# Entry
Amino acid sequence: MIKFILIVNKLGQTRLAQYYTTGLSINQRVALENEITRRCLSRKDKECSFLEFRDLKVIYRRYASLFFLVGVDEEENELGILEFIHCLVETLDRYFENVCELDLMFNIDKAYMILDEMALNGNIIETNKKTVIAPLHIIDQVSKKLK
Amino acid sequence: MTKEFEKLIREIGDCKSKLDEDRLIEKQIIILKKFTKKKKIKPKQQSELVLRLLFCQLLGHDVSFAHILAINSSQESNLFYKFIGYLAASIFISTNEDLQLLMINSIQKDLKSDKTLAISIALTTITKIITVDMIPAVLSNVLILLKHQEPLIRKKALAVMYTFLKQSPESILKYQKDFELMLDDKDISVTGVALDLFLFISKKKPKTIKHLVVSFVEILNLIISGKLPLEYDYREIHAPWIQIKLLKILSYLGQDDPNTSREIYQVVQLVLKQSEIGFINGVFAGHAIMHECIKTITKLYPSTKLLELASIAAGRFVTSYSNNLKYLGITALTDLVLVYPEATNKHQIIIVDCLEDSDETLKRRTIELLFRITNKSNISFIVEKMLSYLKTQKDKKYKTSLVSRILKLAEEHGTNIKWYILTINKILQIFGDLVTHDIVYNIMKLISEGSLLEDEEDEEDEEDEEDEENGKKGSQKTKYGGNTALKIFSVDIYSEIISLKRPYPNILYQISLWVVGEYSYLCSNFTTEETMINIVDLINAFYISDESRAMAITALTKMVSHSGKYLEQIDTIIQKYSTSRNTDIRQRCFEMKGILKLPNIIDKILPLDSINADIEIDPNLGFLNEFVENSLKNGCKKYISKEERIKMENELQLGMNENKKKSKELRFEAYQPNNTQQSSTWRIPQQNIYEQEINKNQITNTIELEDSISLKVSGISQRWTENGYSGFKENEPKNIENQTEKMEEKDTSDDLNQYNNLGDNNNNNNDDDDDDDDDNNDNLNNNNLNNQNFNHKNEKILEVKSFRFNRIGSKGPMLEEGQKTNEKILNNDNNNNTTTGQQKPPKTEEELKREKTVNALFNGAGSVRTSRKKSKSQRINFNSKHITKNTIEKNLEKTENLINLGSEKN
# Structure
């Protein structure tokens, strides 16, 4: 099961955070994010994409200046998550067209929505990019009408 | 998008450090707070504010002041604003549970909406915010939505059911039939979500869904045969994540169940074969499935054919160049070796090489695997590798656990006892401070006992050694039995360690000192004198702890008694450490002194190689019976147990109540003059007190003993009572017998009074002198004590002593007792004040309460703090009883003789 999904930049600033577990206060989250990010950033390219942290396994993948970090429990398939990150990035890329850090920041709501369409409760629920993006287009139409 | 929002985002993007970011967000929060006070905010502005809040929270700031904005926004009719509101609320809410109730209303409304998206958003929100209490409010709506025409809604509704199932499994399991229907949904992603539910059930209650194995196998077959829409392919692999889910469910269902497992074997084998197709550079989807297959095979009821395939697959992972795959290969093997030990045979070298990698994650996994594949043939190699890995580690906690595991490993698989000892020494040299003391005892036991198994194995080695050493010890071997070779071996090693004089961890020195002390006579590379000098040097070294020092002194004692050789240096050491601050060292010094004075029985006290000898302990000290009888005949008083005495005292107390009243009246006698000069002249030398303590420890069980040999410890006896320190009283000798009990009573109250005063001193230092006068006055009266209650007193001393020694434990019975009597004395306190004429304001209840706690606190510390007063009372005691230094020493000698007598009999 996925415990959290984080997107941070190479300076360690959080750009998106979704937790699937309750019980962490804001301060605990910040501490957790800092610690994990610090460790991930210090790892070399050649080293494996997994990090064991407390009772969690963190699987991370780097895309240009952005790091995608996914915390999972012992049971989860690591490579499956690694590929899921890639699938997520591809979906973001398809929606934003050449996604970059600023895209995610200006459209944080959309980024969250894509994530919610793909994973709920810490489970992967959808990997079909077309299906994921369809509701977003509806929202876009609605918001365009407002302007 | 307004300019303000854009500006904020750009500014956040420009922040170069956490500090800049925090400053920016704090400014932003001040701005946002102003908005929350406005009554009317346009929906558009509101949704934007919510997004700004979202950023603030994302960057780690508390925005709970404005959570209500998000909820307001979720109640907007426009879908976009609603979406923003729900999104933000679901993120905020996990930190603020009050919001959930505010949300439930609009969620219920939206679940009945005719807009698909509105339902979808509401369902998404439920999965994030729901708690058990809220399930009934939305359950019926969600159940209807399971049959919605849109796959998006069916999928989300199922996801919501999963959330419910996790929160309250019992109430949701009854809808299992509905979930089963969803497995056949025409949309594969709905099936995928249904699988999540069944994965959960398969973990909790696998038996309830065994009948579905056929369906799961069917779906899996369907997927790998490529009958799904192309959109679900990922890099030429058909729906990899759904395959993984299915494999997981099957592994749980087949676990420990041969019949179900047989149904699964074929499809797993097929999937495993198929997964290879996806082996493209840089894409791991195929590997992910293969890895899941290995995991499944490991969990299923073992099938040799599949296990073989799995180990080949794991081999492919381990031998890969990618660290990701290596890591998974190692992980897979770690599980696989438990059911299929042959799996690692071919890859041992590669596995060990992983320890040399720079990748910490990989190394930790490798260590885990190594722990499992260690056996008798590779133990020495693996332990060596592990130790070199351990040296590179910094995390102390991890190191500690690793060291203890390595020690356990060496213990379990070590075949050669000499190798074991050498390995342990190596570990102790470097990581001694991480090791628990158990290992010390293990080693001691091992060396002293050896073990039959080891001997057989050792014989070959011994023969080699014998050749080398030309039978130098050959004659000795037969003399001392089978384990002697081991003892010689270890004593040689350890005396060398001592001779090296390096700042090794203390634990290593402690083992060394023990071994050398026990078996120095077997040592071949050093003479006893050399080793003694080495130990003396070690004792003086700065890097060893007091504990080790004490052990070193004992080792010296043993060596002297075994060899009969004595060095001047030892004398100096004993002189030096007899005054050590550490009581243990001091005691051992005195023991050594004492033992050396008794050359006749020295070998009985410390016999050679006695560690394994069974010592019979006579807890009743039966050997003293004769002595006790003789003493009784000579007119000593019989010992009365504590319980009986308490009973007697209680009975007497009832009759004494009237007398007690008298004691509270004003006294008109003059106070005893206060001679402070003498206090300094009469101080028992520290050494003598110390010896007294030793002596008393030895005779704790026979109180009469102390009485009969008339060790005049009356000074102590009167200063120390059951309840701690007491002054003592000089008294008119009349009515002695009548007053004895009364004085007992008073005694207790008086010494507690003193504690009480101590407590007072804390609050009011000026009272100090007055209190002392008060004490003295009491002391005068207290000397009423005569020989008749001497017996009782003696036991009290011992109790107090034991109390003092046990004081470390926070709440001994003595402490409680002290507390109780403290309370008693508080009541007497006011009365005493009137008798001495001190003008203390009467204590309020609160003060009394505080005092009680202070007293309880100082009950222990009191004994230390009264030492100043003690000297004063000592003085009086010596005055009245005319005890001189000489008589004390005489008495001490007597006791010493008695101990010798005892040890001889022993």
Q: What stands out?
A: The domain at 2-141 of chain A is CATH 3.30.450.60 (Beta-Lactamase).
